[in-house]
Each structure stands twice: as structure tokens, then as C-alpha cells.
Design a protein that fits this description.
This protein has 9 helices and 8 strands. It has helices at about 20-30, 45-50, 65-70, 90-105, 115-125, 135-145, 155-165, 180-185, 185-205, and strands at about 5-10, 35, 55, 80, 85, 105-115, 130-135, 170-180. The protein has an 8-stranded mixed beta sheet, with helices on both faces.
């Protein structure tokens, strides 16, 4: 089996309370991790550096799409996109990801059985999954042909992969969930953030995806 060079890319904004528990299992499995801090106002950068992750801090808050784009400057075969707010993520899951990188070129990673809300959201809208494995060359071509912003990354990536007819495996991390925005920010601020996310996605869909 060919061993691929890869980089785990973790965009993060105000994830001081969550990021350590995701980085720790990755560190235990010696997975290379880049945390792109989207100009957090808390101690996200400090928490990431404590776990030994390679850290890049953006000069201003630019959104998830811009944060992930920073990874394209690295010379690796593949990229693993992971969110910083996962729950129930263990060393066993990190080991699974390490094996998957060498087995699959392109994959969407679904979360199941960790938290009910996360499981159902991935069942209802699998295209919104933030966990993926991608060849770096594909990610670079995506950004060269796309101008996405904010929360449009996942749906735009999904459309791009379909357009390029790239087969995407569907893998599952059992027992892993995510912290909801309403929990991280408080109910009303979190709900407003969620609505902004949906409006971002709707804006992308309504404009007819001209840049893909």
C-alpha cells in the first residue's frame, strides 16, 4: 500500500474550549496538523500551540473557506479537513483517519452516534459534512476555479467534486458528534450564527453556482 504525505487541516474560530480534545488524539497518533486560526478573540491559538499543532493565524476574520484555502500552500499529497468542535473523538478515530488517507483518494466523513443532532444533520444534509479527505491537487484546483466565502465551502466542494466526476467514498466515524453553535455562543447568538450559515448557503445556491 502506498503511503501518502498528508496534512490534517483544522480551521478554527473561538474554539478554545473544544480544540484541545480533538488535537490530543491526533497528536497521540503522530498525525501532522495545521490549525488555521480565523482571528479568534479567545485563546484558540494558545490551546492549539499547547498540543503541538502547526499554527497559522489569519490577520483578520475571513471565514472558513478562506481559512481552509491557506492549506493549499503546503506540498503534500492529501488533505484531511477536520472541524475543531468534535465530541467523542478518540485516538482510535485518529488511527482510522490515518488508515483511510492511504486507502481512499476522496472521501466524505460522516459522524454517527455521538450526538443525536449531529447524526440527524448528517443524514439529512450529508453535503454539509465538514470532515473530508481530498487530494491536495483537487483542493488547489477547486480554489482556482471557485470564489466561495463564509459557510459555502462544503456545498461548493460537493458541487465541484460532482462536476469533476470524482468518486467520493462515504466513511463513518462512530461515536463522534459536534458542539452546536447555540451551545458555544448561547442560544440567541448561536441561532443567529446558524441562520447566517443557512443564508450563506442559500446565497450560493441562488446565484446559480457561477464560479464552479
Amino acid at each position: 500500500m502506498k503511503t501518502n504525505s498528508f496534512l490534517v487541516v483544522m480551521p478554527a474560530f473561538n474554539e478554545e474550549k473544544n480544540i484541545g480534545r480533538v488535537l490530543r488524539p491526533l497528536k497521540e497518533e503522530n498525525l501532522p496538523v495545521l490549525v488555521v486560526d480565523d482571528r479568534s478573540t479567545d485563546k484558540t491559538a494558545w490551546a492549539a500551540s499547547c498540543e503541538g499543532a502547526l499554527l497559522l493565524i489569519l490577520p483578520r476574520n475571513r471565514g472558513k473557506s478562506a481559512a481552509v484555502k491557506e492549506a493549499t500552500r503546503f506540498d503534500v499529497d492529501k488533505v484531511v479537513l477536520l472541524d475543531a468542535d468534535l465530541t467523542g473523538f478518540t485516538r482510535g478515530h485518529a488511527a482510522q483517519i490515518k488508515n483511510w488517507v492511504n486507502s481512499y483518494d476522496c472521501a466524505r466523513i460522516m459522524l454517527k452516534g455521538g450526538r443525536t443532532a449531529t447524526t440527524w444533520s448528517h443524514i439529512i444534509s450529508p453535503a454539509l459534512a465538514g470532515q473530508r479527505i481530498l487530494p491536495m491537487a483537487v483542493l488547489k484546483r477547486f480554489y482556482e476555479s471557485s470564489s466561495v466565502s463564509g459557510f459555502q465551502l462544503e456545498v461548493a466542494l460537493e458541487d465541484y467534486l460532482k462536476k469533476e466526476r470524482l468518486k467520493q467514498e462515504e466513511l463513518v466515524l462512530e461515536g463522534v458528534g459536534q458542539v452546536m453553535k447555540e451551545e458555544k455562543r448561547g442560544f440567541w447568538p448561536g441561532l443567529r450564527a446558524r441562520l447566517r450559515m443557512y443564508l450563506d448557503i442559500l446565497s450560493y445556491k441562488l446565484r446559480g453556482r457561477p464560479t464552479i
